[in-house]
Amino acid sequence: MPGSDEAMLFELSGVTKTYGAITALDDLSLRAKPGAIGLLGPNGSGKTTMIRTLLGLIHADAGTARVLGMDVQNHPLDIRRKIGFSPEDECLFPGVAGIEFVAYAGELVGMKNSDAMQRAHEVLDYVGLGEVRYRKVESYSSGMKQRLKLAAAIVHDPQLLILDEPTNGMDPEGREDMLHLAHDLAHHKNMSVLFSSHLLPDVEAVCDYIIVLGAGRLLVQGEIAALKAAHNRCFEVRLKADAEIFSREITSMGCLVRQQGEVLLVEIPQGGSPAMLWQAAAVHQQQIRHLRPQRSTLEEVFLNAVEHV
Amino acid sequence: MPIIDQGYQHWSGDLSSHAWRWLAVTRQGIKITMRNRFLRYVLFAAWVPAVALVAMLSGWGLLERKSTMVSTFKQLMRFLNPGVVADPRYYRVEIWQLSYGYFLHVELFFSMILILLVGPSLISQDLRVNALPLYFSRPLRRVDYFLGKLGVIVAFLGMVLIVPAVVAYIFGLLFSLDISVIPDTFAILLEVVAYGLIIALSAGTLILALSGLSRNSRYVALMWLGLWFVSSVVGSMLEGVHHQQMRYAAYAHAQQIQTRRLQADRKAGKTKSEWAREAATWQQSQVAYQASVLHDRQTDWRPLVSYTGNLSRLEDHLLGLNNAWRKLAKLEPSITARNRLLARNTGPQFPWYWSAAVIMFLFGLSLCILNLSIRSLDRLK
Hints:
Shape of chain A: elongated
Number of strands of chain A: 14
Largest sheet of chain A: 6 strands, mixed
Helix content of chain B: over 70%
Order of helices and strands of chain B: HHHHHHHHHHHHHHHH
Radius of gyration of chain A: 24 Å
Number of domains of chain B: 1
Radius of gyration of chain B: 27 Å
Number of helices of chain A: 11
Oligomer: heterodimer
Helix content of chain A: 25-40%
Largest interface: A-B, 46 and 38 residues
Number of strands of chain B: 0
Distance between the termini of chain A: 24 Å
């Protein structure tokens, strides 16, 4: 994806932002194409600052940022017309009904009263709050509040939807609903989604692409499927008998072995082939019950990425 | 049977231009605020002086036309000098000025109450519930946000200051049925509108600045009360003490004169009762006191301490209320009576730009506070 000449969803080029002695973004450069993008990183990695930069809310000390082809410093308002943002905080005005809240969000973007109200009804139906649209927002549950924020973010049909920790504080059922909505918007409604979350399964459920930040720098970015691709030299091996002898044998052949429960994670040396595993088993007359190329989980990808930060 | 899809539909309508984006904030603010029942009562009460203004201007129009309708009510105008009632057309401008002056004086009080009810939560609530990301992640500039919030104050003050003033003006025109009323009084209407805007802008920015200082609306309300009520009380106390000093000085001076006169009378062999001397001393001190009050008003800075006192001084200047009283005072038979009338009715006469400077200073201070608040509003959390 990086380096592609296709139209980019957003591009950051050498963006640096400091708050006093703290460097929130450190010469950050990245490009992302339209789609479902997960934004990962430990606390203080610069995710929020990156979102602020994309929204044009802060001025970077150095570098340039473009969203939907527009420079964020020169066209922040035009960009925000095309972005929907659902913040992490509750941030709902007390005393207003759900429908009023969403319609107001539409009016703030520039929709006419009547359009905003009609559209608010539609999106509240979509997010499953149609039955409670006239209830005061303070009476909503955490899950309903998250969905209400989502409705307010999509009321004007944005091209890019930014969700900041959208499943925080939600019960499993509500979380499932939220992930389903985010996935549906990203994959069936032609809306790009930037999904910032600490919960890797949530990111995996919604996104096809991830960006991992650490200490304000880009650590990893790429298609989740590619990052989780089968390793050429790593295998999962399970034996019928004692693995101890087998481990010693293949270690002597130059393999790196790590035991994970009943499974041995084996990395064969450069130039080696899985045949050497069969060979080692044959030498000690052991039976291999399971042998397959190892695949990384998203958690491993993430942990590997942030390991040295 | 057709299947109605309630799933997500794309929207391709037009978005309005950016210039009026603040109006959405104002509209929402008015909508939410009007749900306060107590506020609606205050609004209703604030219209009562407007009814009185309409009645006064309409009645004066009828009086000018020598309508029989008002002959019954002439008794009600006994508080005015008979010379004024006898020639209503000559005193038209002054009566209109003073009517609007009284109206605005009462409405200034209601304006402060309305601001107390409407203003404190305008920004502090957004700070409290972290609602700012909802605004600033949308195509809304900080200035739009503040204009929108200011618009709420301006709308409510406009409802009790400007709208009734315009309605009363129209009624005054209709009942006078005299085209010459327009050139005579149109400037008054413009001055009233200008004064209404000054109150709305000054008090609006001030309450917004206070509202941006705290997440708790009650603290903001207390700050506003402090600014309005306490400053008025302090200003009045300072004036009261000063006037008392002047009264004592005038009395002491009168006593000295009476003592000298007594000595002269004794030499001349004239006698006067103690009571008569005391009465003469008191009367003389009152005359001297009223004269000194009138003189002192041109330099007395004490009303500057009061926020509403400064607004009132601008009102006096814009509407020319002191000059109107001076014209009416000419009907009084003696200088003493004239001074008494002026001392009772005219307001402070120190240079109006002193008050303008105070109001401008508070306006600038409010903008500075808002500017600082605006920076902090950029935070997403």
